Amino acid sequence: MMKIGRKIYYDKVTGNVLVDTGERVGAVVKTTIEQDFEVYVALSERVPETVGCLQLEYGQDSDKFAQFRYRVDPDKLTIIWDLTPPTAPLEEVKKAKIDFLNNECFKAIYASFTSASTGHTFRFNEEDQANFNQQCTLFLLKPDLADVQWKTEDAGIVTLTREQFIEVVFEAGQHKQQQIGKYWTLKAQIEAATTKEEVDSITW
């Protein structure tokens, strides 16, 4: 599964942020600076030599990006956080927090899960989910297929019977739905919040 950290494009003189590409995960592709200048209007209108770019690691300061405004120090090439209470409207604060929780939900889903029926831990990123679905289809199409070898995180490759595998897939579905359910619950709490303090108190 590809994970791409955010790129921050900023004015080399003022340090003001022009574009924050955000974090991306899943079936995503890295872009070059030249491609970004073609895609983002705020960049296409600028002379490239006047624009700097910071490439961050995936997950780096994600909690701060969800809460605070910031700019870039053009000399030190570091982020300067405005830790004072944001003046942004409540709806904007809510949207930033919902976006942050949505990203946390994806990370939780893609993380491994432990099967109660087998005791093994399985990866569950986007590629793994596709592999689980493909194997389920094979079991449906080939009734005589009795078992499958599958890689686990705790014991390497193990042999699972048809029944064991189906149960693991069921547990994987539960794992995914639990994370999605948690996200929807937290999202509803954020939407119902009436102050920034309430929004800030809601965490994954």
Total of helices:
7
Alpha carbon gap, first and last residue: 22 Å
Strand percentage lies at 15-25%
- The total domain count is 2
Shape: elongated
> Quaternary arrangement of the chains shown?
single chain
In terms of structural class, how would the helical and strand content be classed?
Answer: alpha+beta
| Amount of helix | 40-55%
**What's the story with the biggest beta sheet?**
3 strands, antiparallel
SSE series: EEEEHHEHEEHEEHEEHH
Sheet with the most strands: spatial strand order: 3-2-5
**Mean pLDDT level:** 92
Q: How many strand elements?
A: 11
Write a compact overview of the structure shown:
The protein is α+β, with helices and mostly antiparallel strands. It has helices at residues 33-39, 41-44, 62-65, 90-110, 126-141, 162-192, 196-201, and strands spanning 2-4, 7-11, 17-20, 24-26, 51-55, 69-73, 78-82, 113-114, 121-122, 147-152, 156-161.
